[in-house]
User: Which sequence fits this backbone?
């Protein structure tokens, strides 16, 4: 007999998928909410045939079959529509009849998401829950001689500096000679990192901005947010809130036409200009906004035609080296705002960080260095870049700090570290650890997506479809039907919650260490780790 | 200079985890006096003795300057203070001879009695006045200062190799004595009431040592090129401050067996290198908060100073008593103000003390109405005229206090 069809290599069973949908027929109301909400159309209402065998007692009646149907949920095994575990079906189910379950073994789907020779691209994170930062403990607890402080009642100054800081000799000299002193911002050490208008939905962006504005104007916390590479809405550019915003310029220069045109009408200077040379999620690769998300609004702000993919080049095309970038790009950005706005580069963490750093240290205009570690998240990248490229942030930031100590410039060039801060929910502890390793502050993004907007992404390859505009929570979608789910007011409220709780937790860490007058940058005597080699590498105490 | 910078950096790497630091400064008691008439150091020892409840008698440190008695006549000549073994003396003599430094006057103490309980037996407590070599004539003051400091650091290093020498200071008009044990017992043992040993400024610390392995290099007061400080409390921001000072490329910023040594070096850096005053020292170690600075008349300068000296901000609790090369004595608190400190006296004589009972013991006939306990914004200081105790607050405009 001829087979009904061939078994193709990429024909998968439910068992081969990373996520299985478990559905309870008894509870299911067949309302269709789950199938309607599924962003990837992994499930559909199905009609199932079922055979029922009826056996009467005794020998008189012969057993009989009854063929019937029942209605329920089908899960597709097509790789293009494989369930990615977002759990929206559970969220909308009125009877809790359905939920995704992670496969207990490594899925087979991963071997097949390259149809047409196109490797897997996705958004999200590195999908590795391990974290050196989580393992760092704060071990120098003030006891009798230097009493621990009261985190709730004591006064703390939790501020950091963003800007090129003159060495004391030059600062005193500049004061007496009325010389130029580089602009320096006194800011809160937790910065919302670059997530572009385009990568994020308009509602998410607005919510973050409103939260930041409220923290500044209502709570007196000088919180700053980076735009990412996607420009900035024209009204924000012309508003007083621009001073809370770090404008990012990256290799695609998206949105800079709009920014330059707004320059004469700006009421306030932006907080700073961040020149992105690299990011942790896809180091050595440019930004990527896939065509799904390039609608009319995004296209207008970025100055591109709609519905085309926007891959930024890996490097700034007008530059052939960081040296030239430092010399020219930083200069021209300073010039654009009359030398009143700090300009600093952001790079991916790499073994060549120190070369960049030394170059920046010699350039008297470089305002800081932002280093993004391998655990940085993104809206879109190749899976291989996210999972395998890049350098962990802890040792990279530490090396950078110790290098500055060696040349005596640890105060002149602040280091901002990012990538995996709070990846497992320990935001304040991770931030404090990086600060004590030598960072002047931290940049955090994914945590805000999770905490302020309910992103369902996790370190277990859950959801991760930020790139195709189908974000079930409306965070990274440009489809109004999806982003209407997210109320900007709610996002703003949650941003404020996150900052206030972070502030309390940071004080709960610093108070027992006896620190309140200044941020404990480089206070490496206060931290330890239970791994001998990590302790050696980070030059901190080994504690077991 | 190159070699020294490398030494400093190498030291810093070695001591990165701060394990070589000794907590020496915790709840010590401090006493300092400035007087128009030279005084015996016993006045300070007695003041420490009445404050004994606040220190455990684990050691004493003495700094004397503006010397009287036998040293009045040697004002310009460098005086070496330290503890030496017989072998150390030989080493010292060889070293000094090579440099052409000749002994001018000796005031060394060679104890013959049994030391008090807890005090080790030493061969010589050396106080020796030297004469500058001929080839130093015509050198600039800065060059002489650097050479004297370098000699002290060299001697310390040579002594550390075989523990034959401990050198506390090598500077004109300066004597330092440090030892383990009860201050009064040590003073009697060493005969510090000797007539020839007198000074117009005396700083003394009664140690409350939290570490049984007592290093005298961790004992206050600390001294560098005419600047001296002693501290009560613990500086929780020690590690980054040490790194910052050690990376200034100045060979004198070294040591740091105690977290309080940084206070002396910050003072040296502020006044000696930045050419600012003790008002700015106060602004550097305890800057006003950002929102306070906005309301300050000197906000632009102070904001830049705060930014530039961010790594020198201390994070107490600390009470610092210090002395400048111009013989101004001062007291400041950190911004938590968790340590006691009082200043009082009468024209001609003022004392700075951890506790009022120490002040009462030293200057019972003082003008009590004018006593002052500096709080978190204050500097209390008495200049070399000893006419009055002056107060300055960080809220005031800069007074250029030096």
Assistant:
């Amino acid at each position: 007999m001829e087979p009904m069809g061939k078994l193709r290599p990429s024909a998968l069973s439910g068992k081969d998928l990373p996520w299985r949908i478990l559905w309870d027929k008894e509870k299911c109301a067949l309302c269709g909410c789950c199938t309607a909400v599924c962003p990837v159309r992994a499930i559909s209402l199905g009609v199932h045939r079922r055979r029922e065998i009826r056996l009467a007692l005794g020998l008189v009646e012969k057993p009989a079959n009854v063929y019937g149907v029942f209605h329920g949920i089908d899960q597709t095994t097509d790789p293009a529509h494989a369930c990615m575990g977002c759990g929206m079906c559970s969220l909308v189910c009125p009877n809790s009849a359905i939920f995704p379950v992670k496969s207990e073994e490594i899925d087979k789907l991963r071997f097949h998401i390259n149809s047409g020779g196109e490797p897997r691209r996705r958004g999200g994170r590195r999908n590795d829950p391990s974290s050196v930062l989580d393992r760092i403990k704060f071990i120098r607890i003030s006891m009798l001689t230097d009493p621990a402080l009261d985190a709730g009642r004591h006064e703390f100054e939790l501020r950091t500096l963003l800007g090129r800081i003159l060495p004391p000799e030059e600062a005193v000299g500049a004061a007496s000679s009325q010389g130029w002193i580089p602009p320096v911002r006194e800011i809160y050490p937790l910065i919302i990192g670059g997530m572009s208008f385009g990568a994020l939905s308009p509602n998410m962006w607005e919510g973050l901005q409103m939260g930041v504005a409220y923290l500044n104007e209502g709570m007196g916390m000088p919180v700053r947010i980076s735009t990412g590479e996607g420009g900035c809405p024209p009204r924000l550019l012309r508003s007083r809130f621009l001073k809370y915003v770090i404008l990012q310029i990256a290799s695609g220069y998206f949105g800079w036409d709009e920014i330059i045109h707004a320059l004469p009408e700006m009421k306030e200077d932006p907080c700073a200009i961040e020149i992105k040379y690299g990011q942790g999620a896809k180091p050595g690769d440019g930004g990527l906004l896939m065509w799904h998300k390039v609608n009319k609004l995004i296209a207008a702000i970025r100055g591109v035609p709609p519905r085309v993919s926007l891959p930024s080049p890996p490097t700034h095309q007008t530059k052939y080296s960081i040296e030239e970038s430092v010399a020219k790009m930083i200069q021209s950005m300073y010039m654009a705002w009359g030398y009143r706005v700090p300009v600093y580069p952001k790079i991916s963490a790499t073994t060549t960080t120190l070369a960049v750093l030394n170059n920046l240290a010699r350039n008297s205009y470089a305002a800081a260095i932002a280093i993004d570690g391998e655990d940085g998240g993104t809206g879109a990248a190749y899976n291989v870049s996210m999972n395998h490229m890049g350098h962990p942030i802890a040792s990279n930031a530490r090396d950078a700090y110790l290098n500055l100590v060696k040349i005596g410039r640890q105060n002149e060039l602040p280091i901002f570290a990012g990538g995996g801060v709070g990846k497992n929910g320990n935001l304040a502890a991770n931030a404090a650890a990086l600060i004590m390793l030598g960072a002047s502050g931290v940049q955090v993004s994914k945590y805000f997506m999770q905490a302020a907007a309910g992103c369902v992404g996790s370190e277990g390859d859950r959801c991760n479809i930020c790139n195709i505009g189908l974000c079930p929570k409306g965070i990274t979608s440009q489809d109004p039907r999806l982003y209407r789910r997210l109320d900007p007011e709610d996002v703003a409220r949650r941003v404020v919650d996150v900052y206030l709780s972070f502030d309390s937790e940071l004080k709960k860490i610093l108070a027992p260490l006896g620190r309140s007058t200044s941020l404990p940058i480089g206070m490496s005597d206060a931290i330890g780790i239970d791994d001998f080699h990590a302790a050696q590498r980070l030059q901190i105490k080994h504690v077991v | 200079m190159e070699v020294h910078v490398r030494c400093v950096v190498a030291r810093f790497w070695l001591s990165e985890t701060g394990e070589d630091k000794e907590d020496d400064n915790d709840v010590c008691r401090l006493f300092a006096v400035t007087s128009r008439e030279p005084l015996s150091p016993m006045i300070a020892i007695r003041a420490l003795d009445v404050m004994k409840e606040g220190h455990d008698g684990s050691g004493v440190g003495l700094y004397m300057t503006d010397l009287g008695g036998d040293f009045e006549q040697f004002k310009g000549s460098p005086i070496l203070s330290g503890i030496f073994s017989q072998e150390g003396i030989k080493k010292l003599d060889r070293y000094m001879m090579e440099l052409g430094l000749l002994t001018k006057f000796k005031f060394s103490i060679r104890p013959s009695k049994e030391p008090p309980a807890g005090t080790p037996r030493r061969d010589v407590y050396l106080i020796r006045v030297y004469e500058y070599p001929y080839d130093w004539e015509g050198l600039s003051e800065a060059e002489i200062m650097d050479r004297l400091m370098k000699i002290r650091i060299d001697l310390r290093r040579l002594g550390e190799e075989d523990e034959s020498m401990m050198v506390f200071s090598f500077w004109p008009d300066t004597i330092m004595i440090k030892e383990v044990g009860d201050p009064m017992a040590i003073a009697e043992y060493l005969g510090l009431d000797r007539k020839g040993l007198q000074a117009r400024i005396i700083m003394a610390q009664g140690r409350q040592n939290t570490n049984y392995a007592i290093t005298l290099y961790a004992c206050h007061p600390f001294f560098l090129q005419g600047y001296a400080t002693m501290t009560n409390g613990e500086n929780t921001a020690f590690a980054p401050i040490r790194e910052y000072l050690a990376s200034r490329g100045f060979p004198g910023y070294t040591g740091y067996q105690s977290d309080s040594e940084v206070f002396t070096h910050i003072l040296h850096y502020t006044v000696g290198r930045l050419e600012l005053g003790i008002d700015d020292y106060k602004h550097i170690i305890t800057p006003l908060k950002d929102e306070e600075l906005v309301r300050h008349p000197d906000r632009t300068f102070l904001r830049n100073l705060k930014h530039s000296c961010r790594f020198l901000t201390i994070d107490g609790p600390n009470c610092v008593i210090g002395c400048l090369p111009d013989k101004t004595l001062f007291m400041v608190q950190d911004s938590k103000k968790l340590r006691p400190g009082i200043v009082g006296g009468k024209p001609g004589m003022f004392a700075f003390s951890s506790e009022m009972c120490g002040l009462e013991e030293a200057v019972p006939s003082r003008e009590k109405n004018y006593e002052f306990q500096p709080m978190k914004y204050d500097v209390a200081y008495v200049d070399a005229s000893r006419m009055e105790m002056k107060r300055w607050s960080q809220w005031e405009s800069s007074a250029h206090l030096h």
Summary: Chain B touches chain A through 49 residues (CB under 8 Å). The domain at 2-67+198-393 of chain B is CATH 3.60.20.10 (Glutamine Phosphoribosylpyrophosphate, subunit 1, domain 1). The two ends of chain B are 29 Å apart (CA to CA).
